[in-house]
Amino acid sequence: LTLDLYNNSIGDEGTAALANALHSNTTLEGLNLDLNRVGSRGFISMVTQLVGANATLCFLSFYKNPIFSFTSGQGDKDAHAALYSLISQKTGIRYIGLGWTDIGNAECETISDALTSEECSLVALGLMQNQINDEGVAVLCAGLEKNTTIKYLELSKNKIT
Predict the structure, then answer these.
(1) What angle do CA 39, 66, 101 make, to 5 degrees?
(2) H or E segment to which residue 125 belongs
(3) Exposed, middle or buried, 26 (CB in 10 Å: 0-12/13-18/19+)?
(4) CA distances, 77 to each of 7, 37, 41, 122 (Å)
């Protein structure tokens, strides 16, 4: 079962409510939240509820949401912690779509660290159309050298030369 909520206006509050509802779900295999005005708070809520709880979800997509559009501060730290948790822990999630979410080199550091975790079971990661440049790619490559699960990394339309 896949829940496709593409192009709505769910926002952070709606995402948090959805996350609570999905916490102990045992049938949902895919969740598409693309283009839903989900910010860092909604992303954190979803990750907090799903990691370690929902073993059936294998596809999670947040394309075109302003998740990492913050200046700095606690939201920055909490979103990075959620990103690390989502990628580094052994879950049923095999694909995470984070294209158009304003990921930059700082988030690449978090992703790279998460990819080196022995618990990482992610197979594909979509990072297209973000703010990743050559430095960010080098950081991601360092994490990929130690990763045995990633088979597909989408980096098209970034700032790579």
Answers:
(1) 120
(2) strand 124-126
(3) exposed
(4) 27, 20, 11, 22
